[in-house]
Design brief:
- By secondary structure, the chain is an alpha+beta fold.
- Helix content is 34%, strand content 38%.
- It has one helix at residues 2-53, and strands at residues 70-73, 76-82, 85-87, 92-99, 110-112, 115-130, 133-149.
- A six-stranded antiparallel β-barrel has the order 1-2-4-7-6-5.
- A hairpin with a 2-residue loop joins strand 1 and strand 2 (76-82).
- The longest helix is centred in the first third of the chain and has 52 residues, at 2-53.
- It starts with a helix and ends with a strand.
Length: 151
C-alpha cells in the first residue's frame, strides 16, 4: 500500500526538479527571444505607421508610348511599316514593306501596334550599301501570321 505514494512523491520531485533546472538553464535564452519578439513588434508598428503616412499613387506607371508605324522585336524598334493591311478573318497582316530593317531578325516574332506576328515570307529585299558596308534594308511585300494580341 505504501508503494503508490512513494511513486507519486518521486514523480512530483523529479518533475519539479526538471522544471527548476530547465528555467535556470534556459531562462536567459527565453528572455532574449522575448526581447527579439518585442523589438520585432515595435518595428512592425513603426513600419505600418510610415506606410499609412506615405502618399499613395492610385495609377500604375504607364508603359512608354509606342510608335504606331514601328515594327518591334524584343522591345526595340527594328523597322517601319509601310501600308499595313490587317485581315483578321484570315489571321494575316500584310505590309507593302518593312523599311529601315537592318536589325530585324526575320525568323523571330515581331510586334506591330498591339499584335504579335510571325513573318511567313516576303517578295523581295532591297539593300543599300555604302561601299561594302550595308547601310539600309527593306523587306518588300511582307506576309505575316497573327500570333495574338500583346498584353
Amino acid at each position: 500500500m505504501a508503494a503508490p505514494w512513494v511513486f507519486v512523491t518521486l514523480v512530483v520531485l523529479c518533475s519539479g526538479g526538471g522544471w527548476v533546472i530547465g528555467r535556470f538553464m534556459y531562462g536567459e535564452r527565453i528572455s532574449l527571444l522575448q526581447d527579439r519578439i518585442t523589438r520585432r513588434d515595435e518595428t512592425i508598428v513603426e513600419l505600418k505607421s510610415q506606410l499609412a503616412l506615405a502618399p499613395r499613387s492610385s495609377a500604375l506607371p504607364l508603359p512608354p508610348k509606342r510608335d504606331p508605324d514601328a515594327v518591334y522585336q524584343y522591345g526595340e524598334i527594328v523597322g517601319l511599316a509601310a501600308n499595313p493591311k490587317i485581315r483578321r478573318n484570315e489571321g494575316m497582316l500584310f505590309f507593302d514593306a518593312i523599311e529601315h530593317a537592318l536589325d530585324l531578325n526575320y525568323h523571330d516574332p515581331i510586334e506591330f501596334q498591339d499584335w504579335q506576328l510571325s513573318i511567313l515570307h516576303h517578295i523581295d529585299v532591297d539593300e543599300n550599301y555604302d561601299g561594302k558596308r550595308l547601310i539600309d534594308r527593306a523587306y518588300i511585300g511582307v506576309n505575316t501570321r497573327i500570333l495574338g494580341k500583346l498584353a
